[in-house]
C-alpha cells in the first residue's frame, strides 16, 4: 500500500495521564513507606502519611478512569477477583486488582498506627469506623508484617501495571517496548521519594529524620539520574528507528513543554539541586522542597507526553482517534497529524 | 465433519466506489449522526510523484478480525472475544468502555457507543433499534448474518464486487484462492496481528 | 435509489443481450411521487382531465410499446386501492407481464431473476456474434451492401432542411466552443478554467433521498470532497486559494455566477474545474441536504441545447474563479 499516515490518539488523554501518574506515585509510596518502616527506620507517622496519601491518590486516579468509562455498571466485571482467572492477559485486570488490594492492605497496615493517634480516633465518623477495627491493632507483629508485604507486593504490581498498560499497545512504537515499564517504575519511585521528602520536610518535621531524608535524597538523585539515561535511550530509540517512532520524536523534540518542562525542570534542575544537597548540603529545606515539587510535576508531564505523543502508523488517515477529522488539503504521501491542541 | 470455517474478506481497491457505509450503518445501527461507523471508505489521492498517474482511490476499512487481536488481549472484561470461525466480537453486556481496545487496535477500528448514542439510536433507528448498552463497538463481519448463511451487509451491497467474503479453510473458495495467490495482502502484517482482511491494490492486480 | 423504474429495458453496459430494471433500495421520503404520476398530472393540466390518460398512455404505447388498455385497467384498479403512485405501478405491472411474455417466461420468474441477479439474460455476447457478426453475414444491411460510414438518417434530415454541419452524413469532429471568438488552442487566462461535473454515489441531485440521514452523514464526512469545487494545486497556488476557501465562480459565456468552496486536489486536470452535481440544494424542506451547502450546477450551466439530440451542452463554456 502506498503511503502511510501518522497520527496520535485522542482516546486516552490527560485523565489517563493523571491515572498513570497517581497510580505509579501511590503504589511506590506504599512500597517505600512499608519497607522503610519494616527495615530501615520504624516510622508510624510516615506510614500513615504515605499510605493514606496513596489511598487518596489511587481513589482520585481510579475515579478519573471510572468517570470516563462508557458503561459504569460493567466495572463490576473487573472488580471481581475472578477476572484474573478469566482475563489474565489483560493488564487492566491485574492493575485493578493490584490497586484495590493495595488500597485495602495498606490501610489495614496503617490501622494500628491510626488507632494510636488521637487526630484520627477523635475524628467524627472516621474515629467511629476505626473503633470497629480496634482488633487489628492487637494482631501479632508477624501478621502485621505479612499485611505489610501484601501491601508492598500489590504496590509493586500497581507501579508495574502503569507501565505495562502502555506497553500492551503494539501499534505504537513509543509504547510497545520494555523501556516504558522501566521508565515508569523509575519515575514512580522517584516521584514517591520526592513526595515523602515533602512530607518529611513540611508535615512531619522531625530532626531525627535527618538520616532518612538524606537517604531519600540520595536515592532520588540516583533514580533521576537513571531516568535521564532512560530518556536518552528513548531519544535514540525514537529518532533513529521505526517511522512511527520518528513521528513521535518529531512531536516530542519540537515541544518546549517536553524539553524544558519535563527534561529541564522535571529532571535536570531537581537533579542538580538534589545532587548539590547530597554532596555539599543546603542550609535550608527550601531547595529540596522545590526540587521535590519539580520532580512531582515532571512525573505528571512524563505521562502526559507519553500518552499524547504515541504515534500510530496507518495506511489511511485517522478518523476515530482525532475528534475533528479533516481531509482538507492535498494529501501527500506521509501526513503528520500533530496532537490536538486540547492539552 | 466439515472443518470450522475461518472467515476472511478480500477488498479489491480497483473497483471500490464507497457505497457500503450506508448498508453497514443500517444493518448495525451505528451512531452515524456522530460520524461513528463500523466501516469507513476513505476518499484518497494516490500516486503522482515523478509524473506517475494520479488516482482517486476509495479505501474501505473495517475491523481486520485479527488472529492475534491486540484489542482482545488488552480487554479486561473479556467483552472482546474471538469465535471459532475467526470473527472477533464485542459483548456489550460485558464491555465497560475503558477503550483499551481502541488504544491497542492498529487499524483504528473501535469507536465509542455512549449512553447518549444508545438513547439517540432509539429515535434514529426506531423500534428495530437493538442496542441497549454502551460499548466500544466495531465491525462483527455481520456475524448474525453469516451464521444464517448470508454475507456481511457491506459485501451484499457492494456494487463493484470489490468486497469478497469467504472461508480461508475452503481451498475452493475465491477468497481463499486470492489470499493464497498473494495478490491480496493484509495491512501492516509486520505488527504480527495476523489480520483477516486482505486488499488487492492497483499495482498487484493481475486480471 | 428510492424508485422502481416504470419500465424494463435492455442492459446497457454488458455486451450480452439482457433485460434489466431498477428496484427501489430505500423508501421514498415524505409525500414524494413518482415521475410518471407527476407527468400524468401535468398532462391532465395541459390536455384536460378526461383525455389526459388516454393521450399519455397512447403515446407511450406508440413510443415504448407499453399497451395502453391493460395499463389503464391496472391504473384504475391501483388508484381504487389507494396506491401512492398508481400510474408508475401500473406501468411496472404491465411492463413486467409484457416483457415476460416476450421472453417466454412468467412475470414471477422474471421478477425473481431480476431481484436476485439484477439482469435477465436472453443471449450471451458470443451467441449474438455467432448469429449476427458482420464478417460471417456479409453483405451488410446498408444500401450498398458494404460497410458504410454514412448516415442515411442524417441524409434524410438534411433533405428536410437541417443543413448545419451538425447534421453531416459522415462522422466528423467538431471543435468545441467554450469561449466567444476564441479557439480551444488559445490559452486560458490565469483565473479561467474549463468545467466538468460528475456524481456522488450517495445522492442524486435534488431528490428527496439527498435528505436521507445516513447518506447525509456520509456526505458530511466527505463534505469537503463532495461539495467543494475541485481545483488543481498548481492553479490554486497562483490564485492564492486554499482548500476550504470561499470562491466566486462566473460563467464567461452566460454570465451566471455562483459561490462555492475550493477543494484543492491533483485529481483534476489543471485546466479544469470539477464539481459534484448533487449539492447546492435550495429547498429548505430538505433540511439535511439544504444544510450541506455546496454549489448547484444549474447556477453555472446555461440553457444551451445541442441541436441534434437536444442534450445540454453542459460543459461548453469556461469559468472564472476568484476568492470571495
UniProtKB/TrEMBL annotation, chain B:
InterPro entries for the chain: 4Fe4S_Fe-S-bd, 4Fe4S_Fe_S_CS, ET_IronSulfur_Cluster-Binding
Organism per entry: Candidatus Thiomargarita nelsonii
Coiled coil: none
Pfam families: Fer4_11
Record keywords: 4Fe-4S, Iron, Iron-sulfur, Metal-binding
Protein name, UniProt field: 4Fe-4S ferredoxin
Domain 4Fe-4S ferredoxin-type: 54-85, 86-116
Keyword Nucleotidyltransferase: no
Any GO MF annotation of the entry: metal ion binding
Amino acid at each position: 500500500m502506498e503511503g502511510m499516515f501518522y497520527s496520535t490518539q485522542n482516546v486516552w488523554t490527560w485523565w489517563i495521564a493523571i491515572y498513570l501518574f497517581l497510580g505509579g506515585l501511590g503504589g511506590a509510596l506504599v512500597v517505600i513507606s512499608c519497607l522503610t518502616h519494616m527495615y530501615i527506620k520504624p516510622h508510624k507517622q510516615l506510614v500513615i502519611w504515605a499510605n493514606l496519601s496513596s489511598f487518596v491518590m489511587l481513589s482520585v486516579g481510579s475515579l478519573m478512569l471510572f468517570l470516563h468509562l462508557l458503561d459504569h455498571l460493567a466495572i463490576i466485571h473487573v472488580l471481581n477477583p475472578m477476572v484474573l482467572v478469566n482475563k489474565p492477559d489483560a493488564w487492566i485486570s491485574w492493575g485493578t486488582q493490584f490497586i484495590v488490594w493495595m488500597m485495602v492492605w495498606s490501610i489495614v497496615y496503617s490501622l494500628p498506627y491510626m488507632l494510636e493517634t488521637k487526630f484520627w480516633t477523635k475524628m467524627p465518623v472516621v474515629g467511629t469506623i476505626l473503633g470497629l477495627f480496634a482488633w487489628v491493632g492487637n494482631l501479632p507483629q508477624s501478621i502485621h508484617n505479612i499485611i505489610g508485604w501484601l501491601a508492598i507486593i500489590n504496590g509493586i504490581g500497581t507501579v508495574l501495571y502503569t507501565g505495562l498498560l502502555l506497553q500492551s499497545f503494539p501499534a505504537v512504537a513509543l509504547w510497545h517496548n520494555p523501556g516504558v515499564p522501566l521508565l515508569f517504575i523509575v519515575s514512580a519511585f522517584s516521584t514517591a521519594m520526592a513526595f515523602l521528602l515533602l512530607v518529611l520536610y513540611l508535615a512531619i518535621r522531625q530532626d531525627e529524620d535527618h538520616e532518612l531524608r538524606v537517604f531519600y535524597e540520595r536515592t532520588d538523585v540516583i533514580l533521576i539520574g537513571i531516568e535521564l539515561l532512560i530518556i536518552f535511550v528513548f531519544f535514540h530509540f525514537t529518532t533513529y528507528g521505526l517511522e512511527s517512532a520518528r513521528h513521535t520524536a518529531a512531536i516530542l523534540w519540537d515541544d518546549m513543554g517536553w524539553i524544558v518542562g519535563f527534561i529541564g525542570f522535571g529532571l535536570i534542575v531537581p537533579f542538580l539541586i538534589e545532587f548539590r544537597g547530597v554532596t555539599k548540603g543546603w542550609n535550608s529545606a527550601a531547595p529540596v522542597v522545590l526540587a521535590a515539587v519539580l520532580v512531582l510535576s515532571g512525573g505528571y508531564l512524563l505521562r502526559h507526553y507519553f500518552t499524547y505523543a504515541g504515534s500510530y502508523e496507518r495506511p489511511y488517515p485517522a478518523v476515530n482517534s482525532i475528534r475533528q477529522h479533516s481531509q482538507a488539503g492535498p494529501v501527500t504521501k506521509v501526513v503528520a497529524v500533530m496532537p490536538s491542541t486540547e492539552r | 465433519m466439515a472443518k470450522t470455517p475461518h472467515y476472511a474478506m478480500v477488498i479489491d481497491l480497483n473497483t471500490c466506489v464507497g457505497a457500503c457505509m450506508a448498508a453497514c450503518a443500517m444493518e448495525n445501527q451505528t451512531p452515524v449522526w456522530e460520524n461513528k461507523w463500523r466501516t469507513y471508505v476513505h476518499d484518497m489521492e494516490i500516486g503522482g510523484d515523478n509524473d506517475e498517474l494520479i488516482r482517486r482511490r476509495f479505501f474501505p476499512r473495517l475491523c481486520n478480525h485479527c488472529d492475534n487481536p491486540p484489542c482482545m488481549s488488552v480487554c479486561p472484561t473479556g467483552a472482546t472475544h474471538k469465535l471459532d470461525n475467526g470473527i472477533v466480537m464485542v459483548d456489550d453486556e460485558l464491555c465497560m468502555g475503558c477503550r483499551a481496545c481502541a488504544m491497542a487496535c492498529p487499524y483504528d477500528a473501535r469507536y465509542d457507543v455512549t449512553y447518549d448514542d444508545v438513547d439517540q439510536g432509539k429515535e434514529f433507528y426506531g423500534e428495530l433499534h437493538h442496542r441497549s448498552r454502551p460499548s466500544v463497538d466495531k465491525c462483527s463481519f455481520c456475524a448474525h448474518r453469516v451464521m444464517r448463511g448470508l454475507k456481511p451487509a457491506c459485501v451484499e451491497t457492494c456494487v463493484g464486487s470489490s468486497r469478497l467474503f469467504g472461508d480461508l479453510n475452503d481451498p475452493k473458495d475465491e477468497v481463499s484462492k486470492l489470499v493464497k495467490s498473494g495478490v491480496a495482502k493484509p495491512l501492516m502484517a509486520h505488527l504480527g496481528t495476523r489480520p483477516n482482511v486482505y486488499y488487492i491494490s492497483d499495482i498487484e492486480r493481475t486480471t | 435509489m428510492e424508485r422502481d423504474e416504470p419500465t424494463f429495458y435492455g442492459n446497457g453496459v454488458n455486451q450480452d443481450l439482457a433485460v434489466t430494471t431498477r428496484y427501489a433500495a430505500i423508501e421514498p421520503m415524505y409525500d414524494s411521487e413518482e415521475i410518471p404520476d407527476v407527468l400524468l398530472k401535468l398532462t391532465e393540466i395541459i390536455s384536460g382531465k378526461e383525455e389526459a390518460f388516454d393521450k399519455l398512455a397512447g403515446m407511450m404505447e406508440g413510443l415504448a410499446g407499453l399497451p395502453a388498455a391493460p395499463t389503464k385497467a391496472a391504473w384504475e384498479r391501483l388508484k381504487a386501492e389507494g396506491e401512492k403512485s398508481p400510474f408508475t405501478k401500473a406501468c411496472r405491472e404491465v411492463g413486467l407481464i409484457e416483457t415476460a411474455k416476450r421472453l417466454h417466461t412468467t412475470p414471477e420468474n422474471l421478477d425473481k431473476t431480476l431481484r436476485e441477479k439484477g439482469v435477465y439474460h436472453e443471449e450471451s455476447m458470443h451467441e449474438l456474434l455467432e448469429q449476427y457478426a458482420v464478417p460471417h453475414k456479409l453483405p451488410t444491411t446498408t444500401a450498398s451492401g458494404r460497410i458504410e460510414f454514412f448516415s442515411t438518417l442524417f441524409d434524410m434530415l438534411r433533405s428536410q432542411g437541417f443543413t448545419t454541419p451538425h447534421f453531416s452524413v459522415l462522422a466528423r469532429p467538431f471543435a468545441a466552443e467554450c469561449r466567444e471568438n476564441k479557439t480551444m488552442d488559445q490559452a486560458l487566462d490565469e483565473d479561467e478554467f474549463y468545467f466538468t461535473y460528475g456524481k456522488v454515489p450517495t445522492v442524486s441531485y435534488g431528490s428527496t433521498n439527498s435528505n436521507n440521514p445516513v447518506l447525509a452523514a456520509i456526505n458530511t464526512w466527505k463534505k469537503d470532497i463532495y461539495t467543494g469545487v475541485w481545483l488543481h494545486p498548481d492553479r490554486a497556488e497562483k490564485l492564492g486559494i486554499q482548500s476550504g476557501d470561499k470562491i466566486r465562480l462566473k460563467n464567461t459565456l452566460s454570465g451566471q455566477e455562483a459561490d462555492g468552496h475550493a477543494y484543492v486536489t491533483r485529481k483534476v486536470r489543471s485546466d479544469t474545474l470539477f464539481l459534484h452535481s448533487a449539492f447546492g440544494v435550495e429547498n429548505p424542506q430538505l433540511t439535511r441536504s439544504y444544510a450541506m451547502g455546496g454549489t448547484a450546477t444549474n447556477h453555472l450551466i446555461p440553457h444551451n441545447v445541442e441541436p441534434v439530440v437536444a442534450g445540454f451542452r453542459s460543459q461548453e463554456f469556461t469559468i472564472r474563479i476568484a476568492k470571495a
